[in-house]
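Duplicate of #3305? Posting structure anyway:
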């Protein structure tokens, strides 16, 4: 019989970004697996629904027209936050640099991240902002499709974003790092 004081509880196994990449290299994670590494944990993402996909297409067209050549528009590609997190946000506006062929963008390369949330609103609004803020991502928008509004997060810090505003359908949002492109109407992101 074991003494209850000597039995160790099971521990969660956390992964680094390099271990995560090795899992893919060895076929444990396949190319078409929809997963993200967040704070050392591998999360399976929901399939992309038609409304979500249409919103990302709309954002892509809108942002490419507005921000080129001041920024690069990256769609559903990795951003390496640190050694334990490599999410794939729906949209990333990046500093225009040539280095992305040899490494994934890092927080200081990011001008704005956008997460489109339909079935994952709570996760995108409650979990991801803290990770993005701790990594120093300057600005995050969570486009809440069902609510028809945008949650705007700015001023990152160790405890999250110091500023969180909710912008309704009839209003518009400025990209802090690119004020010269003008405000983007929430309705244009939704319709």
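Output from current build:
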């Amino acid at each position: 019989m074991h003494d209850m004081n000597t039995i160790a509880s099971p521990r969660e196994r956390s992964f680094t970004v390099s271990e995560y990449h090795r899992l893919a290299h060895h076929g444990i994670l396949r190319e078409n697996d929809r997963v993200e590494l967040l704070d050392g944990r591998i999360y399976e993402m929901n399939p992309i629904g038609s409304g979500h996909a249409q919103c990302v297409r709309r954002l892509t067209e809108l942002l490419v027209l507005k921000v080129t050549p001041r920024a690069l528009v990256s769609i559903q590609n990795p951003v390496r936050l640190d050694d334990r997190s490599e999410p794939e946000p729906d949209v990333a506006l990046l500093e225009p640099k040539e280095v992305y062929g040899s490494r994934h963008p890092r927080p200081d390369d990011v001008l704005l991240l956008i997460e489109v949330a339909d079935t994952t609103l709570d996760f995108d609004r409650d979990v991801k902002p803290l990770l993005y803020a701790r990594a120093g991502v300057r600005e995050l928008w969570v486009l809440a499709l069902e609510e028809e509004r945008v949650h705007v997060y700015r001023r990152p810090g160790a405890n999250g974003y110091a500023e969180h505003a909710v912008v309704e359908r009839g209003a518009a949002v400025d990209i802090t790092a690119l004020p010269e492109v003008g405000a983007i109407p929430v309705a244009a992101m939704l319709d």
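Confirmed duplicate; merging threads. The chain has a mean pLDDT of 92. The beta strands are 35-38, 41-44, 72-75, 91-94, 110-117, 139-144, 149-157, 160-168, 172-173, 184-185.
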